[in-house]
Structures are given as C-alpha cells and as structure tokens.
Description:
The complex is a heterodimer. Chain A is an alpha/beta fold. In chain A, 41% of the residues lie in helices and 18% in strands. Chain B has a seven-stranded mixed sheet with strand order 3-2-4-5-7-6-12, sandwiched between helices.
Amino acid sequence: xxxxxxxxxxxxxxxxxxxxxxxxxxxxxxxxxxxxxxxxxxxxxxxxxxxxxxxxxxxxxxxxxxxxxxxxxxxxxxxxxxxxxxxxxxxxxxxxxxxxxxxxxxxxxxxxxxxxxxxxxxxxxxxxxxxxxxxxxxxxxxxxxxxxxxxxxxxxxxxxxxxxxxxxxxxxxxxxxxxxxxxxxxxxxxxxxxxxxxxxxxxxxxx
Amino acid sequence: xxxxxxxxxxxxxxxxxxxxxxxxxxxxxxxxxxxxxxxxxxxxxxxxxxxxxxxxxxxxxxxxxxxxxxxxxxxxxxxxxxxxxxxxxxxxxxxxxxxxxxxxxxxxxxxxxxxxxxxxxxxxxxxxxxxxxxxxxxxxxxxxxxxxxxxxxxxxxxxxxxxxxxxxxxxxxxxxxxxxxxxxxxxxxxxxxxxxxxxxxxxxxxxxxxxxxxxxxxxxxxxxxxxxxxxxxxxxxxxxxxxxxxxxxxxxxxxxxxxxxxxxxxxxxxxxxxxxxxxxxxxxxxxxxxxxxxxxxxxxxxxxxxxxxxxxxxxxxxxxxxxxxxxxxxxxxxxxxxxxxxxxxxxxxxxxxxxxxxxxxxxxxxxxxxxxxxxxxxxxxxxxxxxxxxxxxxxxxxxxxxxxxxxxxxxxxxxxxxxxxxxxxxxxxxxxxxxxxxxxxxxxxxxxxxxxxxxxxxxxxxxxxxxxxxxxxxxxxxxxxxxxxxxxxxxxxxxxxxxxxxxxxxxxxxxxxxxxxxxxxxxxxxxxxxxxxxxxxxxxxxxxxxxxxxxxxxxxxxxxxxxxxxxxxxxxxxxxxxxxxxxxxxxxxxxxxxxxxxxxxxxxxxxxxxxxxxxxxxxxxxxxxxxxxxxxxxxxxxxxxxxxxxxxxxx
Lengths: 207, 651
C-alpha cells in the first residue's frame, strides 16, 4: 500500500472539548487509523488534573516524512480543529487558528463554572458560529449531541463528529480502515457506533 | 486501547510513552512491578496490572512510593528483574531508601521510572528529579519519543544488571502522555526463578555487599559505589540514544537537548528552515554526561544552546565539562536558562523553543496566524467573549457535599476554623466548587501533619478549630503517622477522611480500603474506622449527601474539646458508581412552577453559590435548569434550593 502525500507535513489536528466528552478516545481512533494507513503520528491529550469538565485538547500530528514530530502544535499552526464543545473550539482557534484552518463544531455548550455562578457570560450560540466562520476557511456546524441523544446516549457525540470529519474529507482517513478500527476497539457497541459514524458523515455531506 | 502484550516482533502499535515503558519492561523480562498512582506516571502500572497474570509477572499498586520501591528492590535482590514507577513527588519519599541501596548495590536489573510534571499541570509543584541521579550516582536515561521509551527501558535493565545498581528513567508529562508509533521487539520466553543468597562471610564482606552494607565503613561503601558507577560513562559514550543531526560542516549554532525537548528542537529547526546552519546534539543519557561525545560537538561551534525542561541540569553539566578544557582550548558561548534565552521554569513547547532559537540566531519568525494582521485582529476581538474554564468537582462528586457541609459547620461554629488540605481531588476544596475551604496544601499526608502543629497552639492563645482533610488513598499513603502523632501528643484537631472509595484523581486505582489488588483480585480490606478506633479516639462516619446529619456531626465534634478525632465522610466517587451502574441514582429536574427565578430573593443561590456544572441558569426563562447531558443525578442540589423547586425522583 502506498502512503498518500499529505497536503502539508506534518498535518496538524486539534480535538477540543471538555473532560468526559470522549476527546481522548476520538484522537486515539484517528491516530490508529492513520497509523494503519502507513503514517507516523503523535498525539498529546492535554487534560491536566480534571477527571470531568476541565478543558481538554488533543494535539494530533500526522507525518509521512518524520518519525519524531513533537507532541504539541505551535501557535497558528492547526490545519483542522474539531470542537466537541463550542467555546473550546473558539479558544483553540484563537491560539492555533490561521486563515486556512478548517473547523468542525458541535453545537452543545457545556457551561464553565464561572458561567454557572453568574460571574462570566457564555456567548450566544449564533455569535459563536459567526466567530468560527470568521476564523476558519471552511466550517461545519454539527448538532452532534442532539443527534447522539436521538440515538439514545450522548456518548455517541464524538463518533458522530468523527463521521463529520470523515465527511469533510480534510484528513487522510479511509472509511474501511476507520470501521475496522471501530470494530477492534468497540466490538460490543460496533453497530451503534457505525450508525453514529454514518450519521455524522451524512450531516457533513449535507452542508 | 493499547495492546502491549502481543508477541509480534516488528509490528507497529500506537502507544503512549507510558505504555511503551511498560512494553519495554516486558521485553526486558521483568517479573515484578510496583507503583503508587500519580499523574503523569499512572498508565505504566495501569497497563501492566491487567496483563500481569497472563504475562506471569507480579504487579502491585503499593500503599506509597517508598514501599513500592522497597518491594521492587527485594525482587531484584532475589534475582528477579523489577520495575518501580512513580511521579516526581514519589521520589522525594524514596530517597532515604535509595541513598542506602546505592551503597550496597542490587541483584538483577532494577529500574526506577520517574515521570516529572514540568509546569505542574497535575501536581502540587513542578520539580526536576534529575539532580537526584547526580546526587546519588545513578545512571540516568531520558527518552524522547514513545519508541525510545520502549527501547531505553529494555536497555536500562541490562545496564542496571551490568553496573550492579539501580538505573533511572526520567520521563515527563509531554512524553508519558504522548502517543506515537512504536515498533515492537521480541518478548522473552521463560520465567524468573527467585532465590536470595543468604550466605554471610564475616571474613569476606564483599560476598555480603548486596544486603549488608553495614559490614563496611560508609566511606568504603562510597568507594565501591564510585567504582561501580565509573563503568557508566563508557557505556554511554557508545549509546545509540545519543546522536548528532545537522550539517557536516561546523554549524553556526549547536543545540544540546534531551528528552521531549529534542523533538521540539528538531521540529523548530525545520520550521525555521535552519537545517544547514544549526546542528543538534540529542542526548538520551544525561547522567553521567558522555563527555567525549559531547566534547566532539562543543568544539565544532562557537555557540551552544541547551534546551531542557525545569532545571538547567544538562546545561550545567556541559558548562562544567567546558570548564575542564585545557586553557588554550576554545570555549563556546553558552546560551540557555542561565543566559535567559530559555525559560527557566515550567514546561517547554514548540513556540518557546522556536523563540529561543530565533533569539540566539537573531532572526524573527511569524507563524501562519501572526503573519495575517486581519486574522489576528479578529482573534483579539473574539478572545473577549471566551469564558475561562477552571477546574471543578465532577457532577455528583461527594466532595462538593463534604466541603459544603464543612463550610456551613465552620460558619455556624463561628470561631474562624479552617481546613488544612492534602493531595488529590480533595485539594480542589480550595476553589469555588469546594466552597474555598482549604487553606494549606503541601504534600501527601501534609494536611494532618500541619494540623498537628496548629492543634498544639492553644497555649499561645490559638482558638481556631482545625480540620485536616485527606482522601482515602492519601489516608493510607502518608496520613497515618500524623494521626498517631496527634493522638500520642494530644494535639487538638479533627481529621476528616473524605472517603470516596477510590484513588480518583489518577484514574480509580484500588487501595487498601477498597480491598481489591492491582490485578483485580480480592486482597484483605483494611478498614479505616477500625484502624482509627484502635487508637482509642472518637471516630464517626457520615454520608455527606445527608447534609443535615453531616453538619450536625461536624458541629458536635468541633465543639468537643477532646484531642485528635476522626470523621469519615464516606460516599463512593460517582465516576466509579457510573462505571458499574447504567442508571443515575435520581432523576433530577427543576419544577418551573416552583422556581420563581430572579423574584425568589435567593439571588440564584443554587447556581451562584452551589456551583455544580449540571445545574445551570436558563437566561431566557430566568430560572434554574438541569442539564441532563451533564447531571449525574446525585440529587444534592434538591436539598440546597430554599423553594424546594429542584425535584429528585428515585429511578
């Protein structure tokens, strides 16, 4: 199998969310798929001390040429940012975004504690969407948590977004390999997760 | 997610640095592994324990790092290769044992893996453990990629055996928690046989060196240690983990780096397009310094830049080496932490390393964002609307209830009582979701330790009640001596054990109170209340979700001027419960008819003060609302609402 050229090497992805949303597992799935396609990959899951609801950002670098890419992106160097949580996407866009970046956003907010206590404001969703459009070359807005709840569990949110990422065609992800990896990693919940993956794919294709 | 036990040499796996260390230990044929949980080291044992039985090794979560390392040393003395892993703070605990073990030497390979936390992202501090290796003459290895984590761990066992001393591997959070491609090596077949040579020859004490260093005068032990250690440099000079990458002609700048900083340096040089002008010395063995190897490259450039995390450890070693050059020998100019070109604290990252190199080379760099003024001005505008997201207790966390009860009790008590805190999830008692109760925060067991002192200050007019708080795992780790000291010396404090039946912050590892062992088999459960009652003090137990009962008990115990006393606030960590039970304990919702919103006069008490992420303020409706995707269904907030508008229904 010949390894496809990347449009940029390394190709840099960030998955941004909050603890408990499945960031780490989503980045692992992406990493495993690209590794099976013959690339080198480094993934750093930045989750600090929080088990739940702290800011999490997974930095993924995919390379055909270098085995020793470093574990973090530098400022302004993301090619794709997926936000499982809207303001976490914004936060990462402000540090790692650039005029060419691609953004994929889940619309379900998780309020930081300062917002809950009333000290801080959470921006209106339309304001967030507008800001994301201004800070990206291309963007997909996905109601992933709402769709996951329709499938019966918010746990499917990350796989729906993975489907949207696949549908956006912005990464060297092979659908067959992705499904095979899902089968390896989630043998018991495979059918539901493939359904979630297809849901996300369709949602991205429809935009 | 990872599968480190497969016997498939040459296959590639996507492994965390820590998983790769575990795999390296398997390839080295370990028979024994011990650890105490601590970010960023926990995944090493977390990976080994579930496969221990299958791989025929003994794997143990120990009560603390000291016992973990002592147990691993015993295996080594009995001819079984052993690994002990811990976070940086754990090393502080084992130094007393280690300094003596180094004097006598070991049996089979013994490797200590330490995972530092530059920046202290998941620690009470940031500390560089490498000076311990220098202090105690321990060969020190610093891998830079997941692949090297595996390969160097395997090598460390051979080295340890050959030199007859413990070898130390230093990882750091950006390596331990980074996944990368790892090509697997062979797994050994066959198993270890343990036996301890108990022969003792008074006339030939060297025979007994391993275990009975007392036979020697300590200075003779030092001499023996240095003799053993003196073989290390030769092994390091030829190590494949030290190499040069760069132009064949003398470069304008020579970068010396180790660990994960080597990958930042290599990538920064590519980004800055300096491959023809900058050379890089990548060091995998950092103590002792491979002097001949380093000297060769120090002579090739007028400028040397050292890049590393936390302390200027390699930088100082390299400068020491240059100071030993003959007088007529050219010395380069050194750049690094000492000169201010490299940040002297915290973690490094690619941005910082790009800045350091640019500064020394006198160039400027614009990234894809900073080179677009329009984009930057949008960024500056958008940054204004992004709310911060600080740490919080998880929804359903019993500690939220415990600190709430402590706060109310201390207010009602009215004598300016305060909390001395400890390590782990309970440390978050110092922030808003823990009602800002924790006032001191140092080390494992430190809460009850300092409470001992406060509790003796009555003779100087001190009248504030003191509540030392620790978690259940912290209780076993280091709080027991402090409690016994307080009982013995009649210190006046209360120890509140916030027992959530898990080592929660590091990933729910078992401990003596859970009764399970690392491999999931039943051990002998140690009962916290029985242990405390055996000291002859008053011990009470409350469920913190019974807020009224807990507050009453706290008040009663605070007013009781008896000496040291223990209150166990017991409720299982909700994340542990949620792993076992699919259903939430309660269906929780806000009855919109009863929540009168801004009219209430409570000033949004539930969300403003109580601070649970699952309970939010619906601005449009002007009322509280439960976020069902976040709520854990604990029902605690129902007891907090003055209008009884929050409803909890048993599921």
